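Quick check before the chapter quiz. The format below is the same one you will see on the exam, so make sure you can read both the input and the output lines.
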Amino acid sequence: MWYKEGMLRNVVFQTHVDPVPEAIIILNNKTMGITGNEFEHYLKEVK
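Here is the expected output.
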């Protein structure tokens, strides 16, 4: 579950579908107020 100050709600990324549909990632990024590049950067940091 992801949360960022100022977001209207928490964001949960699916993990039971592989690969996660791009539309879900795009909508979640929009909710979090980040770009696709920012999301990819974060994923590289947490690996």
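If your answer matched, good. DSSP finds two helices and no strands in the chain.
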